[in-house]
Amino acid sequence: MTAWAVVLDNFVKSSEVCFGYLVSGRDVPVERIEDAVGLYINLVPCKCTILQDSLLQQLLTDVHEDFVRSSPNQSFTLTSSPGGEFQGRSLFNATISFQRDDSSNQEIAPDKTTSLERLWSRDPTEVSYSLTNIGKDQEANILQYDIVLSVADKGDAMLVSLYFYNGRIPETEAKAIAMVFSHVIASIIDEPEHTIQQVLPRYHSC
Prior knowledge:
Elements: H1 2-12, E1 16-23, E2 42-49, H2 56-70, E3 94-100, E4 115-122, E5 125-134, E6 147-153, E7 157-165, H3 171-190, H4 196-199
Parallel strand pairs: 1-3, 3-6, 5-7
Antiparallel strand pairs: 1-2, 4-5, 6-7
Helix pairs in contact: 1-3
């Protein structure tokens, strides 16, 4: 979540970014909820304030603490808020989801993927990225957001998939977002004591 917030901040050039993140809903205070059948997922908004002199490690701590504090509210739906559906406007147009995937690695269909590229890897965990351009015929099957980042933990590998609507985000811009995300992840691991400005000077625009 921290890396995604930094990436969005870099592209929209705003000290405040808002995006949605998917929660499983399985840690609500209901007895044996882990054995229940059915979907309990919900999309929760995350708002981050990112200053260029912020340290990566401090930003990680802040985002984690905010996430923990927000856990009791993960079942709250946006439509039940006092503002209803925010007068027809979306609260965010970017989302992120993280899930464990115990299934075997599967090849991504080439007709649905415009680019599949290993941007970086580090033993023992390999990180691969896929970039998927969603056409109009697929829109009904994908959440209606401009860009969606999906992270799958496969145990010995991480698969990061970036879905985007070409009519709203150019493919070149989506590729740049994927590259910057990869750079931010590597920086968080290798240079957590650096500031946002040191790691990622603002040079992109949406």
